[in-house]
Amino acid sequence: PVNTQVNVMTHAIKARKHRGARIAVVDVYETGSAAQADIFVRVNPGTDAALACAVMHVLFRDGYADRDYLARYTDAPDDLEAHLQARDPAWASRITGASVEAIEAFARAIGETPRTFFRLGYGFTRSRNGAVAMHAASCIPAVTGAWRLKGGGAFHNNGAIYHWNKTLIEGLDVRDPNVRILDQTRIGDILTGDAGALKGGPPVHGLFIQNTNPMMIAPDHTRVKAGFARDDLFTVVHEQFLTDTAKMADIVLPATMFTEHDDIYQGGGHQHILAGMQVVEPPGECRSNHEVISALARRLGASHPGFEMTPREIADATLKA
Prior knowledge:
Helix 3 runs antiparallel to helix 6 (89-96). This protein has helices at residues 6-19, 32-35, 48-61, 67-73, 77-84, 89-96, 100-111, 130-144, 167-170, 187-191, 214-217, 221-228, 244-247, 289-300, 311-320, and strands spanning 24-27, 39-42, 117-119, 153-155, 206-210, 234-239, 251-254, 263-266, 273-276. The chain is an alpha/beta fold. Helix 13 (244-247) links the parallel strand 6 and strand 7. The protein has 15 helices and 9 strands. It starts with 5 loop residues before the first helix and ends with a helix.
């Protein structure tokens, strides 16, 4: 079963042609991939975890669970099985909108195919309880023991294969270990003065934000909103759009889009490094992250080789390193 992208379908269709593999797609509407699938399970948005629980319920119920594998490699298989007792296909059908028959058939296909491979996409994690949904889906091959077989298991992202040397772009050679690093997922606690979140240090009075929208994505929104609303907090947001975070800023700096600056990108589902060179001039006063950081460094008297280099020079040096 795959929650998939085009490059995955290429390999899946080849496997179907040469080895009789079946392709299953779970999605909220009939995508191009779903149209090519042998099994399509349409679910309501944000209900993937319920489907995963019902699938595992069937796997345990019908004897497809690899109990030896579970005992050896997982932490609480008995607790999981007990938790799933009430999560049968009828329960999941009411939540997901998928029929009981579709859920049963999907689970049976997984159980009857030991070398099942899950291509877990990004979409369903971008909803309430998305991380839990991803965890639930990735547990299915643990229940069947598919991980022990070549070609079985699950895949989400291979970003860890690149091993970049980010010394130049992140200034790792001049980092001061005495400067605290705070956890962005606790920005609500940080901005409302939680001593633990502040690691015993003084309160935060200034924020410079790039590449994130904590007013929308950070946990504990009530605290996040209260923190950003403080009168004594000076906030600068460098952004492409007027996000919820940008609306809370004292100063908003316009940022470039990816076609308006030079950069390199790593693949998340393949093994290539991509050159993304600038193709158009940025409008108005839009500046890239690198331009803004380097300009701040000059005004603050901070020195580092990276501040004096162009993005292409930094990319070249990073790739060589």
